[in-house]
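Design request, tokens follow.
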């Protein structure tokens, strides 16, 4: 159990303490302090009570927020460090929040540089919070993996780890192909002292276990070259689940291109996408075919309720010829 050594003095109901109004009226004494003679105990007790109460309050803030003891051992370094941590933890911010976060992979590579003007890291969700400025880190899929090797044609989660005592930071990468990566690092090999962290990106890898070419991080959005998630000629009269790996499990929204076409003139095609079977957040693309092979495309952003899953409905009226229903993923928000 944590302890607070700093206790309030003369805080009882009958304490011999000068009333606040009388104390505030002692302008000369407040300006110069006791110069000579015998100080009145009520005046001295007032001074001691005010200072001790504030010391007790600040010390209790340290204890309650950081879980560290507030020890009266005559030194200030530990108290000051813990007070700074407590104030930082009470500041406004959400883990992983950043300003102008960016990462651009022009050509496939095992390295990629993440930058941000500011980044919030935490010791745990709702834990101690730190704001890092002018972040620039080059992640390396060969040397920064927490365990194992980088996946081929999968996803990796990139973490920034911070040591509050030294101000140093390091990188860790986790295979996120089949997991939803947590917002705070929980890998197997956290370096000692690096107690605060944040998930800064979840990005795709190519068949050679490199960062995929064309990957561009903008804040919490990851843009990528168009990747086909559906290409079907089957009519679906009700919303049907579609599991697809064109986005990671961390994705909460996806940028998509929706398209329909048919080789039979006089038909109308419609492709609907939604986040569940109840058509929540539905978006639609339709086309009336007047020339064989003609169709229509539209762009949309759709919410993801279940990881790597959307629901779709496809219609061709009248059901003549062969209709093609497709959608491509061009980005996602994690």
């Amino acid at each position: 159990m944590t302890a607070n050594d700093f206790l309030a003095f003369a805080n009882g109901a009958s304490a011999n303490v000068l009333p606040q109004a009388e104390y505030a009226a002692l302008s000369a004494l407040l300006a110069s302090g006791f110069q000579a003679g015998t100080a009145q105990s009520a005046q001295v007790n007032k001074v001691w009570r005010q200072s001790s109460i504030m010391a007790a309050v600040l010390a209790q803030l340290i204890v309650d927020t950081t879980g560290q003891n507030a020890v009266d051992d005559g030194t200030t370094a530990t108290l000051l460090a813990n007070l700074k941590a407590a104030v930082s933890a009470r500041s406004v911010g959400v883990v992983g929040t950043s300003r102008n976060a960016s990462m651009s992979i022009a050509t496939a590579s095992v390295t990629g540089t993440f930058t941000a003007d500011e980044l919030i890291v935490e010791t745990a969700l709702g834990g101690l919070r730190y704001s890092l400025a002018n972040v620039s880190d080059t992640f390396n899929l060969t040397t920064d993996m927490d365990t194992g090797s980088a996946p081929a044609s999968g996803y990796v989660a990139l973490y920034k780890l911070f040591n509050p005592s030294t101000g140093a930071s390091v990188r860790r990468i986790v295979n996120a192909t089949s997991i939803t990566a947590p917002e705070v690092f929980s890998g197997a090999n956290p370096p000692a002292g690096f107690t605060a962290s944040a998930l800064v990106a979840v990005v795709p890898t190519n068949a050679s276990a490199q960062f995929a070419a064309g990957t561009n991080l903008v804040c919490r959005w990851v843009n990528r070259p168009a990747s086909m998630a559906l290409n079907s000629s089957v009519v679906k009269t009700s919303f049907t689940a579609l599991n697809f790996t064109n986005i990671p499990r961390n994705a909460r929204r996806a940028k998509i291109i929706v398209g329909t076409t048919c080789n039979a003139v006089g038909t109308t095609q419609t492709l609907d996408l939604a986040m569940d079977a109840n058509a929540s957040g539905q978006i639609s693309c339709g086309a009336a075919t007047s020339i064989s092979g003609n169709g229509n495309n539209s762009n949309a952003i759709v919410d993801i309720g279940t990881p790597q899953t959307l629901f779709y409905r496809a219609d061709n009226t009248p059901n003549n010829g062969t209709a093609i229903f497709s959608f491509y993923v061009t980005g996602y928000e994690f």
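Comment from the thread starter after seeing the answer: thanks! The chain is about 15% helix and 40% strand.
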